[in-house]
């Protein structure tokens, strides 16, 4: 087994573009940072694209260079895993707009030689997918064996066959949705306002000074509540107090859940760019696959070659099972092959990241692995 | 009909105290601002105490002096209303810790001649109730015909018979809970962190300068999401865009739900003190009526004279029906008379404030009105 089956190969390319964008205009050049695992087969037929969620990155099965933490989907990607790197050539690219090496608001704008900041164009999920297609062109991969993702990664996995009907053989969409609801948008708007309320945000122009860490931490805390189930929070924390075991009658973190949220907020700001958080949440809020196809979701999937696998979690209140069911109905109406499973988990939306052996078995089976 | 049946009489008293507090220590003097409606009967047997929610105030049926808006429960309190001011003497007092005339962090600390700010003691729901009892003593009211409230007002309405078992004949508890859950605490903690992240908060010491309006607005936005149901948000806003009818591909409020939330945040900061928001959310998070009674909720109600009426709303995900049911089970176990109704409403937690003729009928019937 070669090292690049077990450990990712970190790569970065600068593609000339221009990449036309949904908002009008285009981006040029387009930088894409990505990891690969395994070896591309001579017929180039074993490429699997893994799409990451809002705050994740290309380090799907490699240690994160800033935090040193292991990859975010190690149980899914690796030798003998459901996405088996001894068989598949796995690509995971940092999405457009993010901050781990792909073009985003922190990138240098060639026209000014300074970071784009808020001059970076507002992008969409489809723009992210188009950038990934540029990368596949660069790698000489005409067609994907599969595209897979959870949460915002699932939006990309849906957008792929809708945008490139003949370039995807299979799409796996986990804990995701075909459009952001009013409540989804509302939570993201609170996060954006928290960032923008931080004076250090300075209309996005903070790269030569201090970042708006306080605002970004609040945004992360608010979002984090939506990633967990009420029952999961109760099981994990309930009303348990911190170690001192009595109320402080002050404003320190008395309850364990307060301390947990503060930690989530603080650790996030060390690894993520506030402007990227604005751009990516905006892309998610704009996502409405039906709207892109004449208002009818089934139209998004007419003519696709892909077969689909949908997975939802029963305690996910961010993208509840009903959202996956809506997608399955549209796939059925379009005559696309679709399988769908709702899994039981106490972990809410985060279930797809935490511990889901059932999910792993479903993905393995769908990709044709032995059980 | 006298004017004070139709319009409230605004009053404020400064009681010498000291008021002993759950956190240790005491408060002295205790200022209480309150409104009354109707006339106290010669036998003093017609007093109804209305308890307000987190960001509400004593202006239950009178115009708000800062915003000019009509009272927050006009359909409930007034001549011919369920709480009929031609029959009942209605009292509504600004809670301890708030900012509409009762003692709170913006009040002058007599020991320094400056606002208390964060030197104000951390208070509990039971402290609020004890302050109300001081007010009743001052008014010569030994026993309440009824105490009623929604949300945090319902916590007070529960705490009243638990704290003063012989002073309450009836308690009406609407859209409320006997304890804050981990998720409830989490949302409040996000709001507090948003306030504290605003540099203008300045550790609470901002009364001689600019208030932390940006942080408080974010806190209000996050809280507001919890007051509405997902279905209600979808019905009210869906993914509808603002008037310009096309995505801006920028960070202005494109979606109506964004504009609505921003308005909620901005209008709140004109009428509410950020430190009061910290203190009152803390009091709610500390609330756990069972914990105050040896860990068994039924113990809170043993020996009470009161009969109880519980109302919940099916789309309230802040204090869902299960929380009311827990209270009813405890009341049953304690042998207290209890009636309970879950009402259907699209409006989520806010249903008790918005439009609930069924709720009004239930309250009227429970208080012995003709239908």
TrEMBL record, chains A, B:
The active site is at residues 151, 316, 349. Keywords: Acyltransferase, Amino-acid biosynthesis, Cytoplasm, Methionine biosynthesis, Transferase. Pathway: Amino-acid biosynthesis; L-methionine biosynthesis via de novo pathway; O-acetyl-L-homoserine from L-homoserine: step 1/1. It is an enzyme of class 2 (transferase). It comes from the Bacteria. GO terms for molecular function: homoserine O-acetyltransferase activity. It holds the Pfam family Abhydrolase_1. It is found in: Cytoplasm. The keyword Amino-acid biosynthesis applies. Transfers an acetyl group from acetyl-CoA to L-homoserine, forming acetyl-L-homoserine. PANTHER family: HOMOSERINE O-ACETYLTRANSFERASE (PTHR32268:SF11). NCBIfam families: homoserO_Ac_trn, PRK00175.1. Homodimer. This is Homoserine O-acetyltransferase. It comes from Sphingomonas oligophenolica. The gene is metXA.
């Amino acid at each position: 087994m070669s090292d690049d089956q077990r450990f990712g190969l970190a790569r970065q390319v600068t593609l000339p573009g221009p990449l036309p964008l949904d908002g009008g205009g285009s981006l040029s050049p387009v930088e894409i940072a990505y990891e690969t695992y395994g070896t591309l087969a001579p017929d180039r037929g074993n490429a699997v694209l893994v799409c990451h969620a809002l705050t994740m990155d290309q380090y799907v099965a490699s240690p994160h260079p800033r935090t040193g933490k292991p990859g975010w989907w190690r149980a899914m990607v690796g030798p003998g895993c459901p996405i088996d790197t001894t068989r598949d050539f796995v690509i995971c690219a940092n999405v457009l707009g993010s901050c781990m090496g792909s073009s985003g608001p922190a990138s240098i704008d060639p026209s000014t030689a300074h970071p784009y900041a808020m001059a970076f164009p507002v992008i969409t999920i489809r723009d992210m997918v188009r950038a990934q297609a540029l990368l596949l062109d660069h790698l000489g991969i005409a067609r994907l064996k599969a595209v897979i993702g959870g949460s915002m990664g699932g939006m990309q996995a849906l957008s792929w066959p809708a945008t490139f009907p003949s370039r995807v053989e299979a799409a796996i969409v986990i804990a995701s949705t075909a459009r952001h609801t009013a409540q989804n948008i509302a939570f993201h708007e609170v996060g954006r306002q928290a960032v923008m309320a931080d004076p250090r945000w300075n209309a996005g122009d903070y790269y030569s000074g201090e970042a708006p860490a306080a605002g970004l931490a609040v945004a992360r805390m608010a979002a984090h509540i939506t990633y967990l189930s009420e029952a999961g929070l109760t099981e994990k924390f309930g009303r348990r107090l911190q170690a001192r075991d009595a109320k402080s009658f002050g404003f320190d973190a008395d309850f364990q859940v307060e301390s947990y949220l503060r930690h989530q907020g603080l650790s996030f700001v060390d690894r993520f760019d506030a402007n990227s958080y604005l751009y990516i949440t905006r892309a998610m809020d704009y996502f409405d696959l039906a709207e892109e196809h004449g208002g009818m979701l089934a139209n998004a999937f007419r003519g696709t070659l892909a077969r689909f696998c949908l997975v939802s979690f029963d305690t996910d209140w961010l993208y509840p099972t009903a959202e996956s069911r809506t997608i399955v109905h549209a796939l059925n109406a379009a005559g696309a092959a679709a399988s769908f499973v709702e899994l039981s988990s106490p972990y809410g939306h985060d279930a797809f990241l935490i511990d889901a052996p059932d999910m792993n078995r479903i993905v393995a089976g769908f990709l044709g692995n032995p059980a």
